[in-house]
Amino acid sequence: MAFGRSKRGASKATPAEPVTLKLLVAGGFGVGKTTLVGSVSEIKPLRTEETLTEAGRPVDDTAGVESKSTTTVAMDFGRITINDGLVLYLFGTPGQDRFWFLWDELAQGALGAVVLVDTRRLEDSFAGIDYFERRSIPFTVAVNHFDGAEVYPPDAIREALDLDAEVPVLVCDARRRESVRDVLVSVVEHAMRRAVAAQQTEPRPAPAR
Ligand SMILES: Nc1nc2c(ncn2[C@@H]2O[C@H](COP(=O)(O)OP(=O)(O)OP(=O)(O)O)[C@@H](O)[C@H]2O)c(=O)[nH]1
Ligand SMILES: [Mg+2]
C-alpha cells in the first residue's frame, strides 16, 4: 500500500524512514484544490496555473467563481509530514473537464483521494466521486465552506451525493492548514480501515496437510 520509502535498504541502525503515501486532491472547477494543497504543503507547492481569458469564456464555466483569474492546467504538487512515520505527497487535479485525460496518469499509485465539494455546485463533484468509486480508490468528501454558502450537515451531503456509509464526509476550510490536515488524516485512516477489512475477508489459504 505504501507509495514508497525515501531510502531503500537502509541499514538497521538508522532510524526507520517514513512511509510516503500519494493522495489525490480532486473536485470540480474552482472548488479550492490548489488552495488546499498550498495551505498544507511544507515545500513550495508546484503549480501549473494559467490565466483564465476572455477567449476561454465559452469553454471555462466560471459561474459561481467569477472572481477566479487562473486555473490549473496540469496539476498541483505538495508535501506534508503528518508525523515521524508518515509523509503525504499531494497531487491536485485540474478541475475542468477538458483535462480529464490527465487523471489516469495522476491516479497511478494513489492510496486515496480527497473530493473537494462546493455545496453551491454539488453536481461538479459527481464525476470525481464516480471516478474513485469505479476504481475502488478510498476517498473522503471534504466540503470547502465558502463565505455565504449555506451550511449543510454532513449527513445531508452524504445523501445528496449518494455516498456509501463508510465514506467520511467533513466540512473544511481549504485555506486553513489544520482543517486540511484533518481531511488528509481522514483519507489515510479510511484507506487503512478499508485495507484491514479487505484482509479479513480474503479467503485464507488452505492449511497444509
Ligand atoms: N472564501 C473562500 N474562498 C476560497 C476557499 N478556498 C479557495 N477559495 C478561493 O476560491 C478560488 C478558487 O480556488 P482554487 O484553489 O484556484 O480552486 P481550484 O479547485 O484549484 O480551481 P481549478 O484548478 O481551476 O479547478 C480562489 O480565489 C481561492 O482564493 C475557501 O475555503 N473559502
Ligand atoms: Mg487548481
Automatic annotation (TrEMBL):
The keyword ATP-binding applies. GO terms for molecular function: ATP binding; GTP binding; hydrolase activity. Keywords: ATP-binding, GTP-binding, Hydrolase, Nucleotide-binding. It holds the Pfam family ATP_bind_1. It comes from the Bacteria. The keyword Magnesium does not apply. PANTHER family: ATP/GTP-BINDING PROTEIN-RELATED (PTHR42708), GLIDING MOTILITY PROTEIN MGLA (PTHR42708:SF1). Belongs to the GPN-loop GTPase family. This is ATP-binding protein.
